[in-house]
Amino acid sequence: AISRWLTSISTAILFCPKSHHFCMAQKRMPSVLRASISSLYKLFHHAESAPELLPSYLQTKLVVLDFDQTITALHTHGACFSDEEITPAAISNNFADIAFFGELIRALAPSRHVCIATYADEHPGAVLAGKALVRKYLDVALGPDSCKLIPDNHIEAWNPACHGMDPLRVGKTLHIEALRRRLAPRLARSKVVLFDDSFDSITLALAHGYEACWVRPCWVSGIQSADGGLSRATWRRFLAQERENHEAERCHFFM
Fold first, then answer.
1. CA–CA separation, 144 vs 2, rounded Å?
2. Considering the entire predicted model, what is its pTM?
3. Predicted confidence band at 6 (pLDDT cuts at 50, 70, 90)?
4. CB within 8 A of 123, min separation 6: which ones?
5. Other CB atoms closer than 10 Å to residue 233's CB: what's the count?
6. Tally of CA atoms within 13 A in the half-sphere of 67 that contains its CB
7. Cα(178)–Cα(2) distance, rounded to whole angstroms?
8. Cα separation of 112 and 114, whole Å?
9. CA distance 149 to 115
10. CA-based, 20 to 30 A from 123: which of 44, 50, 60, 204?
11. Which residues of 59-93 are buried (b: 16+ CB within 10 A; e: fewer)?
């Protein structure tokens, strides 16, 4: 009997729970086992895709994402002034790649800090602005419990220009350092990466010892980029960059 149950479990996990194979297999297993098969299936297939997104050579422990034109396709300017701009449909349509965003965040969150650094600041005349606007986008992409994947203290949403600083001089470095000190103060800056569409922010982050990956904007001069924003292509470019760094470190170690 135990052998038959194990065979049923294996079959159910290997095939989709909605498939004919699963329907046949579940008839041969006790009800207490049937109840857990769906979650086992999800865990098994997530483990299959994890190596693609999180290869063993990836040493990054804190991932910082810009918001406008990195997560989003079009710039929100950190504020929305009408209810039409913040409907689930409007927000979904303004993600660079909402499906990949959800997949990536769910893969990263269990083992890494996922953060957002944005110039989106509070605006008194807006329907939604600053951190609240970012949270609205996260809720649409990740569900109403998005704070479990990206808590509020993982979000730095403020504009240096509103605090007497020149954005061209500081970029996102103060945002990143505030996140690092709050979440992982002993973490080396080389284990922190910024994804941003701004060359200035990327350059400044690198100058301060962080890793950085430039994100192609989704729209440039009215022309849409096929792999713009935070997309699978962007993540693969970052992984290729990390693999080169890893191999260079290994070569240096054995010299």
1. 40
2. 0.79
3. very low
4. 78, 79, 129, 130
5. 16
6. 30
7. 54
8. 6
9. 10
10. 204
11. ebbbbbbbbbbbbbbeebebbbeeeebbeeeebee
Tokens 């609205």 found at: 136
The one-letter code for the residue type at 39 is S
Token readout for 103 is 């997949």
Residues 6+ apart with CB under 8 A from 247: none
Alpha helices for the chain (secondary structure H): 2-14, 20-26, 31-53, 88-93, 98-108, 130-142, 167-170, 173-183, 199-207, 232-254
Chain centre to alpha carbon of residue 101: 5
Q: Using the structure block, give the residue that is written with the tokens 């945002």.
A: 175
Q: How confident is the model at residue 87 (pLDDT cuts 50, 70, 90)?
A: very high
Tokens 């009215």 correspond to what residue? 222
Residue with tokens 């483990």: 47
Among 194, 157, 195, 155, which residue's Cα sits nearest to residue 78? 157
**Angle value at C-alpha 112, between 116 and 114, nearest 5 degrees:** 10
